[in-house]
Amino acid sequence: MFDHELLDYLEGYLTLDRKSRFLEVLGQRTKFITVALEDVYQMHNTSAITRSCDVFGLQELHVVEDRHARVLDKNIAMGAEKWVDVHRYPNSGECLDALKGKGYQVIAATPHNGSRLLRDFFPQRPTAIFFGTEKEGLSLEVMDRADGHVKIPMSGFSESLNVSVSAAIILHDLAEKIRNSPVDWRLSEQELLEKRLDWTMKSIKNVKGIIKRFNAGR
Predict the structure, then answer these.
(1) Domains, the chain, ordered by start
(2) How many CB atoms lie within 10 A of CB 5?
(3) pTM: predicted TM-score of the whole model, two decimal places
(4) Which of 54, 123, 128, 180 is the most exposed place for a label (fewest CB within 10 A)?
């Protein structure tokens, strides 16, 4: 059961502007679209994608750290992970199982000729966009188990974009599409309450001590 009293108490430590900002941002947050990264080696790309999730209102990011775990553990997002929930997996299979178990369709972002153009793709149901490494792209496992494939249309000589640039383009496109559609893309009331509490706790110094005193006075 959610602790409404604790939330009310802790929000008393926030300024009115801070509390209002949380409500404003949460009103645009979604889990309907999520992102999965498969062994992205360059730490600044993972960081940039995490920030893109925050900017475009995606609440969750899924990171496969099969080969490059040490790098990503130390340099995940330059602060954006404070507002985005980052879930980590030791391999792509576990990530795919988790996403599909939550009801997501998995769409592989790949420039291959058989992929659907981004402008022609609309996520009718909860969708996880999978991005691969800068050099090799997505693994065969992800490509085979994906429910579909999508690509950004290109008109130049280059056949691919930096992974963080690709993610920003795709996330902006899909976020705009769902927000201008009748699909139920918003967080549930329970999810909104949980994130209000989470963000409030992350914004208060010595919050553990404050909660301890609050519980002692009940």
Answers:
(1) 30-184 (3.40.1280.10)
(2) 10
(3) 0.91
(4) 180
